[in-house]
Write a structure and sequence with these properties.
single chain; 449 residues; alpha+beta; FAD/NAD(P)-binding domain; 6-stranded mixed beta sheet; globular; disordered C terminus; binds flavin-adenine dinucleotide; binds 2-acetamido-2-deoxy-beta-D-glucopyranose
Length: 449
């Protein structure tokens, strides 16, 4: 497509970079502005990529190269344990079963590796500007949208996509420009958990390809093996009480110290205390875990997607994966809107229809993810006697089949890019949009083989 439309993207993380890559592939012009000077900063975070996100990356020709870069790293076994260092359940070869069923692995890598890879995959690197913090939306009218950055520059486009995370400036600017709607929802945005996460190196006792869950008392661990000598930890703990809106704290180094101290002697495996892992950290961060699916995502020529419109607990690893899906659904609908007359720019009314549709298509799935992650976190933290009984007595008896059926719901309904083929990867469980009755919708099925 050779469209005159120009999309401004605010934020160059998972959502922003994957959207830029999609727009580039379908021939829609863009300019991405990222506040950090470094496009792939080391923030201590890891990311679990799942088949739903990986299939879209595969459509963007990013999958094989990403696997290669991450040394083909993927999850093999998954286990559950108690603080006594006792494994209550092990699912051997769970990762292999996921590949067989869905065509893609569960892949745990450094978040910065993914960002660097998305950036490297872009051809038009001059369209990514770093060290550009957007401070305001100057206007959004019938003609264009204009933004200003901290350094005093301004940029004009036809569409503005906020991919600027949970503390979204774009969302706050929409609230300012459109006082008739509640974009902030300070009575809904809440946090009831906090998470200390980080990356350690050369920790003995986390086996290759393992991902482990340790049940605590109002807290839990998620431990993962990463590429090379890396391993990842997440310690998620219940806050004293649920906090809302602007009462959600930001933590200091002192808070972090106090948070971790009571846990240093936790036996995370039979041979390993948390201290052994924490002492070998390259980096670690303590954050509150916000939860919300915002009701309103857009105003005029502006839409917010990714963490700026929805946020879930990390335990099921769907935040980033679903953000990639969101970018794909936005691309699909923009593309369809332009298809009829690529040389004509869509009107504000047409954009409103596109954005409303994206919000409508995505909201139920994101709400489901928020609920799922919340339930799962409650189980792992043994939050009630019933959940404790479930985690320690009934869960160990579950067959791998039950877990895999859960994944089927999680991955199966995933979105993908309508206009790009899906490379052939053998799988026994097709995605819902690959089912026979859906084939005609995606054009020539042979193109996908
Ligand atoms: C502890 C933890 C573990 C997680 N684990 C997983 C996982 O295993 N799997 C998974 O899929 N997801 C995971 N997530 C969720 C995932 O990290 C997020 O969903 C994902 O990063 C969202 O991407 P985003 O691009 O929307 O926002 P962000 O990653 O928050 O990026 C926002 C970007 O915008 C930039 N920015 C902000 N303001 C401005 C501005 N004014 N101007 C210009 N740029 C700006 C920022 O610098 C940043 O680069 C986890 C989250 C947490 C907290
Ligand atoms: C990754 O897997 C591919 C295909 O199986 C193989 O060709 C490649 O050599 C592997 N790379 C690494 C770094 O292991
Ligand atoms: C996966 O785990 C099984 C069981 O522990 C082990 O036999 C196998 O070698 C592992 N596979 C890989 C690729 O590490």
């Amino acid at each position: 497509m050779d469209s005159r439309l120009k999309v401004l993207i605010v934020g160059g993380s998972i959502t922003g970079l994957s959207l830029a890559l999609m727009l580039e592939r379908v021939g829609i012009d863009f300019l991405l502005l990222e506040a950090h000077v470094d496009i792939a900063p080391e923030l201590g975070a890891s990311i679990g990529l799942c088949p739903n996100g990986l299939r879209i990356l595969d459509q963007l020709s990013c999958y094989d190269s990403l696997q290669e870069k991450s040394q083909n790293h993927s999850v093999n076994n998954s286990w559950y344990g108690t603080l006594a260092g006792r494994k209550v359940k092990e699912f051997e070869g769970l990762g292999g079963a996921v590949i067989e069923r869905h065509g893609y692995p569960l892949s745990f890598i450094d978040r910065r590796m993914l960002l660097q890879h998305l950036y490297d995959s872009l051809r038009q690197k001059h369209k990514v500007l770093t060290g550009k913090r957007v401070v305001s939306i100057v206007k959004s009218d019938d003609v264009a949208v204009m933004i200003r950055t901290e350094d005093g520059s301004s940029y004009t486009g036809d569409v503005l996509v906020g991919a600027d995370g949970i503390h979204s400036r774009v969302r706050r600017e929409m609230a300012r420009l459109d006082p008739a709607h509640d974009y902030i929802e300070s009575a809904s945005l809440h946090a009831h958990w906090a998470c200390l996460f980080g990356i350690s190196r050369n920790v003995p006792g986390i086996a290759k390809g393992d991902v482990g869950y340790v049940f605590g008392n109002r807290f839990s661990y998620l431990l993962g093996d990463g590429p090379g000598d890396r391993s990842y930890f997440f310690l998620t703990k219940r806050l004293q009480k649920r906090v809302f809106g602007s009462d959600i704290p930001r933590f200091s180094d002192k808070d972090k110290e106090a948070f971790v101290k009571p846990h240093l002697d936790d036996h995370i495996t039979s041979g390993l205390r948390f201290r052994d892992m924490y002492d070998k950290r390259m980096s670690s961060v303590l954050v509150p875990l916000e939860e919300i699916v915002y009701k309103r995502w857009h105003y005029g020529r502006i839409i917010a997607i990714g963490d700026s419109s929805s946020k879930m607990l990390p335990i099921t690893g769907q935040g980033g994966n679903s953000a990639i899906e969101n970018a794909a659904v936005l691309t699909n609908n923009l593309f369809d809107c332009l298809k009829t007359s690529p040389q004509n720019k869509p009107t504000v009314e047409q954009l409103d229809t596109v954005f409303e549709k994206v919000q409508e298509l995505r909201t139920p799935r994101l709400q489901k993810f928020v609920t799922m992650a919340n339930k799962r976190q409650a189980v792992d933290a043994l939050l009630t006697p019933e959940l404790e009984e479930f985690a320690l007595t009934r869960m160990p008896q579950l067959q791998a089949e039950v877990i895999l059926r859960g994944f089927q719901t999680e991955f199966g309904q995933a979105a993908s890019l309508n206009m790009l083929p899906v490379p052939y990867r053998p799988r026994t469980v097709p995605f819902a949009d690959e089912q026979p009755q859906e084939k005609s919708k995606k054009g020539d099925i042979m193109a996908k083989l």
